[in-house]
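Instructor's aside before we start: the two examples that follow are unrelated to each other. I chose them only because their records fit on one page, so don't look for a connection. First example below.
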Amino acid sequence: MQKQHKRVLIGLLTGFLIIWSISTYFYVRSKSDSIVQDTDGESKSLRVHFIDVGQGDAIFIDYGDYDILIDAGNNDGGDLVVDYLKKLGTDDIEIMVATHPHADHIGGLDDVLAAFDIENIIDSGKPAETKTYKDYWNAVQLEHANYQEDANMIFEIDEDLSFEVIEAGDDFKNTNDDSVITRLHYGDIDFLFTGDAEQEVERVLIEKNITAHVLKAGHHGSRSSTAQVFLDRVNPLYAIISCGTDNKYGHPHKETLEKLNAANIRVFRTDLQGTIVATVEGKTVRFTTDR
């Protein structure tokens, strides 16, 4: 009789554990807002990596099997970027953006082009008479990717994610103002990437749809960028500044930091925090840093 009671008790306990495990599984899944399903049933999440390449820019947008790279730092940063992407399991890159032909943005792109298959390449269309630019351009020609100069265009990646190129003009005297401007839209969250764009082009951009939750501050946080009228138009909650520790330019400049602080915008800096990763979770953005 006691054995029978034990068997009944064990049976009831086992059933309870099975039900509890199933309910817990669905609860955990339902709380994971950053997970979506693609057409093949593979789970995806959106992460934007602001890679610490010192005094330069390198931004990697990782969305399942769809990858976007914006710049790759200086010449000595190419291997760093390649290694970083390979550790993430990157096999190819759907869109590569070279914002403008300065070495601290395109210097590492020839290494990236040598290491990965690239589907689309977008740049400002403005050449330079430097070895760094020639190395980049030779690598572009060898890649046989779909090459385009920047123009108004939108890549509709899926129903949740789009990547937009915003054309601000091509007649600027300052090479920084020729930077390719891009905007990433994912669900309820937007990112704006500005390269080294300065205040002259910012005055053009305020007439366009540039509101964003996360702003990659122009020109490494220089006082020449992030004009107040531009900042008011973007109206970000967060700003990312990519710059090198104790760099000779003094980036980010005090004036820019004061504007951001006055607007209660939370600032992340690669010189202080290393690589910064923004993960979109539902209607929020979660940040992790190296330090």
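Example two begins here.
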Amino acid sequence: MNQGIEVIIYPVKDLAKARTLYSKLLGVEPYVDQPYYVGFKGEGPDIGLDPHGHSSGLTGPVSYWRVADIHESLRALIEAGAEAHQEPRDVGGGKLIASVRDADGNILGLSQPAG
């Protein structure tokens, strides 16, 4: 069902401070640097900083798993006991994201590439 973790999103309150800290930690400058999102490519999954994450209910980092069919993956996870958290939405260029909560309240993100 999944093709590995694509990105880990961290909700942040001070985007400028977080950008500086994660640039130092990862040893790279952001490849996306916008007021609504800062993204880094390093070793392993991309790292994203979301200044609106806390207001949308994020309490910590969320891993987004790459899937081929986001609707089928959501259906399968809900049938397995997950609770819908965020319905699929286009975040640009046809890329879709969605999320569910597991039985312990952890948020699991799904990401379907544009295509």
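The chain has a mean pLDDT of 94.
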